[in-house]
Each structure stands twice: as structure tokens, then as C-alpha cells.
């Protein structure tokens, strides 16, 4: 279970204390790692200095829980610089999605990962997120990127269709990457099925704002408590649907504001959170899961 908290802002400035609270809550709930500056962490909206401060504060609050730092940027030289900053700030690993403005070719994506892994000897998680980057990894690209030095895991969107479809997807990814590279799924609505299908990691938006429920659900999957898994996923259904339709960062921000973890509005403009009805729906679903 890897928790991905949002990066709150207050009056368009980084809110370090609110970030610290979110990271501390995740660590205390028993997540296995905390991933900052991913898509939910709004890395592209932050300055280099803000990104370094995020990693430093996250490492401080996480204690013994490893912190992964997103290092994606448009230019490879900036990615390398951010990765070096993350290492200096105490990150246990880095998370890299191929951020772009001009659509990247597969050769360019592979070149990005080659540049970074050759320059920074920090464990790297390869992050496929077509929704934000426009890059979908082919089988050949998965094979070539995962074979690079320091790559320890891949983070790819889960697939719809339940556990059977997830098993096929996990098995296919495992056939492409070296045996030492972990395979994990994102997309909370389908990642639970991937975890049940044998994925190594659930990379979770929900765990960044509601870590107690997310950890309980992940442990229920691992222990085979199918009844609890069904009850929790049914209760969380409306919130998971909102994450799929509206984006995890908007749902996380709305819940964090509604529950008083951060001062709102906490997203950098032009991003905006959910409306009142959507927030109420997400919070009701979370509350229902917490009562189980």
C-alpha cells in the first residue's frame, strides 16, 4: 500500500504544515510507503524549491516509512536535477512519469529513463499514466525501460473487468519485466482487484486522504477476507467512481478540506475541487466505509 497525498496550497503558497499532517496520518495508519509529487501531488504546478521542500517535509513526517518522490518534468536535465534534490532530501526512491508537451516517441521515453538512471543511483518506479502524459507503454517499451539499472517497480493503471482481467494484466506485465521488478496498479476503483490478483502494490489516492480505510481494505485483500473486501468496496463505490470520473486530486482535495485536514481552497489555480453535492457524496461513502 503506497499512499499518494495531495500537495496543499494556501493562498497559492505551499502549505507545508497541511502536507505534513497528511503524510503523518498515512504513516501512522500503516502504509508501506508514501509517494509525494505524483499526479495527486500536483508536481508540475510547483517550483523546484517547493518540490524540494515537499520531499524534506514528507521525509520528516514519515519517520521510518519510505518516501518516494515524483521527479517528472519536461526536460531531462530538470528531471535529473529534481532526482538529485530528492536524493539529497532523503527520499528512498523516485517516481518518474514521462511528462511532455510535444508527444514523445518511444525512443524519447526510453532515452529519458536512460538519462535519469545513468545519472542518479536512486531506486526508480516507472510510472505509466496515459491520462495525464498521453504516453501508453508498449510491450517493447516496458521491457526496455524495466531492464535499466535501478528500476525496482512499475506503476500502471489497473484494468476494468474484475480479478480475472486483473490477473491477466498482472501476468502480462510480469512477463515483460525482470523478476526483481515489482508490478503495481493505480486507479483506486480497479487497483483493489489488481491487488487481489497478485499485484505487489496498490498505488493509492484514497490512502493519501483516508489511509485508515485504505490500509484496512488492502489488508483484507491480502488476508482473503472477501466479505470485508466486498463490504468496503461497496461502501466506497461512490467515492471511487468520483475518483475515476473527476480525477483523484479533486476528490482528495475536497475530502481533505471537508474534513478539516487542510484549509480550502487547497488546489493551485486553475484547478478546482468538487462541487458541494459531489463532496457530500464522497464524504458519505467514506463515512459508510469507516463504520464497517
Task: Describe the model.
- This protein is α/β, with parallel strands linked by helices and 292 residues long.
- The protein has 13 helices and 10 strands.
- The chain has helices at residues 16-29, 48-62, 76-88, 106-119, 130-133, 139-146, 162-176, 188-196, 206-209, 211-223, 226-246, 248-258, 276-290, and strands spanning 2-3, 9-10, 13-14, 33-36, 67-70, 93-96, 124-127, 151-157, 182-186, 201-204.
- The strands form 2 sheets. It has an 8-stranded parallel beta barrel, surrounded by 6 helices. The protein has a two-stranded antiparallel ribbon with strand order 2-3.
- It starts with a strand and ends with a helix.
Q: How would you state the average pLDDT, rounded? A: 97
Number of helices: 13
Order of strands across the biggest sheet?
1-4-5-6-7-8-9-10
**Largest sheet descriptor:** 8 strands, parallel, barrel
Structural class: alpha/beta
**Rg calculated over all Cα atoms:** 18 Å
**What is the chain-wise order of helices and strands?**
EEEHEHEHEHEHHEHEHEHHHHH
Shape annotation:
globular
Q: Give the strand tally.
A: 10
- Kindly state the percentage of residues in helix: 40-55%
- The fraction of residues assigned to DSSP E strands is 5-15%
